[in-house]
């Protein structure tokens, strides 16, 4: 079993799930009405500008269907020096896919990204963290089989993940190949459980100092903090689905604060693309 340890200075990672304002909670758009309001290019432009201002390279988990609809998007992201990874094709939850459908989504997205940018992705994140060692163990086998070196889908949170799951990068052995690294998103540990401070509504809602303190705590423990953002979160005037009070807040609440918060963190810590963070960890037999 590999021993997990890191070498060199700890770098954290900013990751972007590249999807449009309506790709929420596994929602798959059917109406042309929604397609006419596409905003992803504009919102990704805001993220790219922010990262460039801070001199940070990140990882962009591309939805294959978005890359197909906006063929200039992935090349534009790659041209800025960022890593392209896969967010699947349709934004359907992995728990709702068969093994064959999951494999087909991975291959279709990787083929398209390779065709558009010349590079095949080797990192994956499932829509809404819908991967688990209990319910979709076959998915890790397929990821390894398809040449993926890391996954970033296992969030240590109640309701949408495993609250007792590890916060550190760890190795997941697979049956068909040797295995795959797992890099969970950052959370804040409290006596009441883990809080979702690494991205989404928690990142936009909890006080700045609280999130900064968490990143510092990860750093002191020698762990990379994996932050995540959706383009719609830095686009406060973008459209929103009518999801009701709670789900509406989770998807769109406090959007005016995200860009400022992100800028402060990106300037305060060292960041690298997630693929490079994985390489900084050594596997010793
Ligand atoms: Zn997503």
Structure write-up:
- By secondary structure, the protein is of the alpha/beta class.
- The protein has one domain (3-284): Glycoside hydrolase/deacetylase (TIM Barrel), CATH 3.20.20.370.
- Helix content is 36%, strand content 15%.
- It contains eleven helices and twelve strands.
- The protein has a four-stranded parallel β-sheet with strand order 4-3-2-11.
- Strand 9 and strand 10 form a beta hairpin.
- Helix 2 (40-54) runs parallel beside helix 10 (258-268) and helix 5 (99-117) packs parallel to helix 6.
- The longest helix has 19 residues, at 99-117.
- The relative contact order is 0.20.
- Residues 1-5 have low confidence and may be disordered.
- It binds zinc ion.
List the helices and strands and how they pair.
Layout: E1 3-6, E2 13-18, H1 32-35, H2 40-54, E3 59-62, H3 64-69, H4 73-79, E4 83-86, H5 99-117, E5 123-124, H6 137-145, E6 150-151, E7 170-172, E8 180-182, E9 188-190, E10 193-195, H7 200-205, H8 208-220, E11 226-229, H9 245-252, H10 258-268, H11 274-279, E12 281-284
Parallel strand pairs: 2-3, 2-11, 3-4, 5-6, 6-8
Antiparallel strand pairs: 1-12, 7-8, 9-10
Helix pairs in contact: 2-10, 5-6
Residues 17, 19, 23, 87, 91, 127 line the site of zinc ion (ZN).
């Amino acid at each position: 079993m590999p021993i997990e340890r890191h070498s060199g200075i700890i770098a954290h990672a900013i990751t972007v799930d590249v999807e449009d304002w309506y790709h929420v909670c596994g929602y798959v758009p059917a109406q042309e009405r929604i397609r006419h309001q596409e905003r992803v290019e504009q919102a990704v432009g805001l993220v790219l500008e922010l990262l460039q201002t801070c001199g940070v390279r990140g990882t962009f988990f591309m939805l294959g269907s978005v890359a197909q609809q906006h063929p200039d998007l992935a090349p534009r992201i790659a041209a800025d020096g960022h890593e392209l990874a896969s967010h699947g094709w349709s934004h359907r939850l992995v728990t709702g896919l068969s093994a064959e459908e999951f494999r087909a989504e991975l291959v279709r997205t990787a083929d398209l990204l390779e065709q558009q940018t010349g590079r095949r992705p080797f990192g994956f994140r499932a829509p809404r963290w819908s991967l688990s060692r209990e319910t979709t163990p076959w998915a890790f086998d397929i990821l390894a089989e398809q040449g993926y070196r890391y996954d970033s889908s296992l969030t240590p949170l109640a309701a949408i993940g495993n609250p007792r799951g590890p916060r550190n990068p760890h190795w997941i052995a697979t049956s068909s190949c040797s295995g795959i690294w797992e890099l969970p998103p950052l959370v804040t540990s409290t006596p009441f459980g883990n809080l979702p401070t690494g991205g989404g509504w928690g990142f936009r809602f909890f006080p700045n100092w609280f999130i900064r303190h968490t990143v510092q705590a990860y750093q002191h423990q020698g762990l990379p903090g994996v932050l995540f953002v959706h383009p719609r979160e830095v686009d406060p005037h973008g459209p929103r689905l009518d999801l009701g009070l709670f789900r509406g807040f989770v998807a769109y609440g406090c959007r005016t604060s995200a860009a400022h918060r992100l800028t402060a963190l990106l300037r305060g810590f060292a960041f690298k693309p997630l693929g490079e963070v994985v390489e900084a960890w050594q596997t010793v037999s």
